[in-house]
């Protein structure tokens, strides 16, 4: 009887596959990325490496000693304090306590301060509180501190925001109006992000983590690129490190005609995104590849590694791949299985050649 | 004559798949003037053309505003073709979907994309918006008598509303008449099976395919 | 929650247990890719790159250089004091350290 290996589906459930089925899924996952992104498939030895990680009987697998990489952490301290029934575990503590817990107990290389809503827009009116909390944290901690938030252009559209909602305008055939609303939202989001970055830099912030970029499509991405360029050409903020982390593997064309330096933003994949991020002056890039819940871990991982390896190859800035719930091979499950996370983590470092996670 | 018909169907399909909205209606009118069978234009021209557009959207080769503009032209073309069929013909019926984001959840970008793609595919859409109380879904089910009820959630905290909605449709005696479809970041095929939903849409194109399957639009 | 611990076990440098914060700073400040950042830090600390994730080496070295250690150690540099020494050891700018210096000058 052919030996079966326990692995996972993209939704975290246990499944059993034979070695040849695992290899087949890896072939298919890599081919899917290659076809979608117009890039090369993984080489045979790279596929072999993923097969060996997946078939390893250990619960936890790891990179070879000496191959470790540093991590940036998004979502700030919300994973400890968050109590909305999501990924947070609802421990009542201050954000300063949260940062110190990460530094002292969880071996983090960098840590992040973030507002409970984790968007730039709501942080603007409470900037003095963000500044003072940051000041306290910078005095008492050692690791580099990011301020993290989402550009979240959705907050600028009705009913939350001041501009008409493109999602409502487009089905009515008001394409021009929808695009105008998006263009106005870009300008307002830039103003808000810039205001927050400048004020936090004044009190000594190490870096700005612009997380889930392009969640609202190409207008979201354009706002982030342009504000990055502005911050990097402003003497007050030019030395602020900027990490641009993405929301999905390709930029949704919600507008379709937006460009940066003559390059169309809609529809581009991680290896193309990073080149534009570099042009804008981004210091670190966080690519994303979505996990398909109906496919296996080997399929998802091979697909994600194929995209990320190409991104690492073409990039001159460090790549810190996003590896949270439901991205880059990690199953879409609130408490992702340790066996799947450690396999995904190891493959990204040793096959995807990332500079960090 | 047969060659001309074939040629026109091919032109219709290409006008759609190559995103030339102006040509779509033009070719349709010429086809109708020649008295050719409208059903062939729909099944061999519009359907494969839209399938290619769906693939292009999925790959990021075509974007929402273009799809919407194209969708308007395809709708006009479909209406013209359908008007030539007898009124009691099955093809004249538009499948209706009521769609909304579950109560407590204000995320509607994904739902918006699904909604637009469904509209382009010829579904009759009733959008309840976002943060929709479950009672409003029930009211809409009674008022609009949809073929499908679609709900979305971006958070694990709000997705439980989908299960409640299934129960409420059952209690109201509406469930057997309506197919249910769910989607959103924390939703999986397994979750859909667990709560008894009829379909799960992994992304916009998958949602369209699943919706078509639910109403047998993919047959033939 | 918990996933970051799994990632650390699989591929993490180890933060201030080892030299993770130092490598991360070089990436952030100087856009260094992983090998360049590790080589830079190892050279500044006068250790092998393999030792950057070796707790046994880094615990003592951090204490000796007074750049902050993970356990409670009376008298050892804490917070911004440790960062000011890191800035010197790595020869890089740290904004919060510069801000403090500007305040007391």
TrEMBL record, chain A:
<protein>
    <recommendedName>
        <fullName>[dimethylamine--corrinoid protein] Co-methyltransferase</fullName>
        <ecNumber>2.1.1.249</ecNumber>
    </recommendedName>
</protein>
<comment type="pathway">
    <text>One-carbon metabolism; methanogenesis from dimethylamine.</text>
</comment>
<comment type="similarity">
    <text>Belongs to the dimethylamine methyltransferase family.</text>
</comment>
<dbReference type="GO" id="GO:0043791">
    <property type="term" value="F:dimethylamine methyltransferase activity"/>
</dbReference>
<dbReference type="Pfam" id="PF09505">
    <property type="entry name" value="Dimeth_Pyl"/>
</dbReference>
<keyword id="KW-0669">Pyrrolysine</keyword>
<feature type="coiled-coil region">
    <location>
        <begin position="172"/>
        <end position="199"/>
    </location>
</feature>
<dbReference type="GO" id="GO:0015948">
    <property type="term" value="P:methanogenesis"/>
</dbReference>
<keyword id="KW-0808">Transferase</keyword>
<dbReference type="InterPro" id="IPR012653">
    <property type="entry name" value="Dimeth_MeTrfase_MtbB"/>
</dbReference>
<keyword id="KW-0175">Coiled coil</keyword>
<keyword id="KW-0489">Methyltransferase</keyword>
<dbReference type="GO" id="GO:0032259">
    <property type="term" value="P:methylation"/>
</dbReference>
TrEMBL record, chain B:
<keyword id="KW-0170">Cobalt</keyword>
<keyword id="KW-0479">Metal-binding</keyword>
<dbReference type="Pfam" id="PF02607">
    <property type="entry name" value="B12-binding_2"/>
</dbReference>
<dbReference type="GO" id="GO:0031419">
    <property type="term" value="F:cobalamin binding"/>
</dbReference>
<protein>
    <submittedName>
        <fullName>Trimethylamine corrinoid protein MtbC1</fullName>
    </submittedName>
</protein>
<dbReference type="InterPro" id="IPR036724">
    <property type="entry name" value="Cobalamin-bd_sf"/>
</dbReference>
<dbReference type="GO" id="GO:0046653">
    <property type="term" value="P:tetrahydrofolate metabolic process"/>
</dbReference>
<dbReference type="GO" id="GO:0008705">
    <property type="term" value="F:methionine synthase activity"/>
</dbReference>
<dbReference type="GO" id="GO:0050897">
    <property type="term" value="F:cobalt ion binding"/>
</dbReference>
<dbReference type="InterPro" id="IPR012741">
    <property type="entry name" value="Corrinoid_p"/>
</dbReference>
<dbReference type="InterPro" id="IPR006158">
    <property type="entry name" value="Cobalamin-bd"/>
</dbReference>
<dbReference type="GO" id="GO:0050667">
    <property type="term" value="P:homocysteine metabolic process"/>
</dbReference>
<dbReference type="Pfam" id="PF02310">
    <property type="entry name" value="B12-binding"/>
</dbReference>
<comment type="similarity">
    <text>Belongs to the methylamine corrinoid protein family.</text>
</comment>
<dbReference type="InterPro" id="IPR036594">
    <property type="entry name" value="Meth_synthase_dom"/>
</dbReference>
<dbReference type="InterPro" id="IPR050554">
    <property type="entry name" value="Met_Synthase/Corrinoid"/>
</dbReference>
<feature type="domain" description="B12-binding N-terminal">
    <location>
        <begin position="1"/>
        <end position="93"/>
    </location>
</feature>
<dbReference type="GO" id="GO:0015948">
    <property type="term" value="P:methanogenesis"/>
</dbReference>
<feature type="domain" description="B12-binding">
    <location>
        <begin position="94"/>
        <end position="220"/>
    </location>
</feature>
<dbReference type="GO" id="GO:0005829">
    <property type="term" value="C:cytosol"/>
</dbReference>
<dbReference type="InterPro" id="IPR003759">
    <property type="entry name" value="Cbl-bd_cap"/>
</dbReference>
């Amino acid at each position: 009887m052919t030996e079966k290996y326990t692995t996972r589906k993209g939704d975290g459930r246990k499944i059993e596959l034979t070695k040849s089925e695992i290899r087949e899924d890896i072939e298919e996952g890599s081919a899917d990325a290659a076809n979608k992104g117009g890039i090369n498939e993984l080489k045979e030895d790279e596929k072999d490496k993923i097969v060996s990680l997946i078939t390893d009987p250990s619960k936890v697998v790891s990179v070879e000693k000496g191959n470790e990489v540093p991590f940036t952490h998004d979502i700030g301290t919300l994973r400890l304090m968050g109590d909305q029934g999501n990924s947070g575990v609802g421990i009542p503590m201050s954000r300063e306590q949260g940062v110190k817990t990460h530094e002292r107990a969880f071996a983090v290389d960098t840590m992040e301060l973030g507002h409970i809503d984790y968007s730039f827009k709501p942080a603007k009116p409470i900037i003095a509180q963000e500044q003072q909390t940051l000041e306290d944290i910078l005095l008492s901690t050692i690791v580099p501190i990011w301020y993290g938030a989402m550009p979240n252009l959705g907050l600028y559209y009705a009913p939350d925001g001041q501009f008409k909602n493109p999602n409502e305008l487009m089905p009515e055939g008001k394409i021009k109006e929808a695009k105008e609303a998006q263009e106005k939202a870009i300008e307002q989001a830039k103003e808000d992000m810039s205001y927050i970055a400048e004020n936090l830099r004044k009190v000594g912030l190490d870096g700005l983590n612009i997380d889930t970029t392009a969640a609202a499509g190409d207008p979201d991405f354009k706002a982030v690129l342009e504000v990055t360029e502005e911050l990097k050409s402003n003497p007050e903020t030019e030395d602020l490190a900027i990490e641009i982390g993405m929301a999905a593997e390709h930029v949704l064309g919600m507008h379709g005609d937006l460009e940066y330096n003559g390059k169309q933003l809609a529809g581009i994949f991680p290896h193309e995104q990073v080149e534009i991020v570099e042009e804008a002056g981004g210091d670190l890039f966080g690519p994303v590849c979505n996990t398909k819940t109906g496919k296996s871990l080997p399929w998802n991982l091979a697909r994600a590694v194929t995209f990320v390896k190409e991104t690492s190859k073409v990039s001159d800035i460090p790549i810190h791949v996003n590896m949270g719930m439901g991205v880059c091979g990690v199953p879409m499950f609130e408490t992702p299985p340790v066996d799947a996370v450690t396999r995904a983590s190891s493959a990204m470092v040793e096959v995807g050649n990332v500079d960090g996670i | 004559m047969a060659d001309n018909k074939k040629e026109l169907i091919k032109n219709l399909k290409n006008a759609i798949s190559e995103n030339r909205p102006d040509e779509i209606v033009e070719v349709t009118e010429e086809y109708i003037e020649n008295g050719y069978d409208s059903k062939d234009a729909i099944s061999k021209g519009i359907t494969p053309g839209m399938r290619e557009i769906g693939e292009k959207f999925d790959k990021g080769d075509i974007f929402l505003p273009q799809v919407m503009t194209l969708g308007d032209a395809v709708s006009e073309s479909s209406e013209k073709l359908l008007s030539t069929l007898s009124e009691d013909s099955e093809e004249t019926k538009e499948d209706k979907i009521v769609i909304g984001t579950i109560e407590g959840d204000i995320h509607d970008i994904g739902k918006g994309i699904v909604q637009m793609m469904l509209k382009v595919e010829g579904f009759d859409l009733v959008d309840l918006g976002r943060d929709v109380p479950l009672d409003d879904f029930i009211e809409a089910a009674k008022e609009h008598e949809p073929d499908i009820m679609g709900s979305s959630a971006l958070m694990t905290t709000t997705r439980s509303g989908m299960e409640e909605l299934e129960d409420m449709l059952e209690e109201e005696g509406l469930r057997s008449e309506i197919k249910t479809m769910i989607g959103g970041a924390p939703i999986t095929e397994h979750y859909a099976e667990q709560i008894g939903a009829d379909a799960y849409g992994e992304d916009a194109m998958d949602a369209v395919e699943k919706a078509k399957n639910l109403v047998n639009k993919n047959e033939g | 929650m918990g996933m970051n611990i799994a990632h650390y076990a699989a591929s993490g440098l180890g933060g201030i247990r080892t030299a993770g914060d130092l490598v991360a700073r070089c990436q952030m400040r100087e856009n260094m890719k992983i090998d360049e950042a590790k080589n830079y830090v190892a050279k500044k600390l006068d250790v092998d790159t393999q030792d950057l994730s070796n707790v046994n080496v880094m615990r003592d070295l951090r204490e000796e250089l007074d750049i902050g250690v993970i356990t409670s150690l009376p008298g050892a540099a804490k917070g911004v004091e440790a960062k000011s020494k890191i800035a010197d050891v790595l020869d890089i700018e740290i904004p919060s350290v510069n801000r403090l210096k500007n305040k007391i000058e």
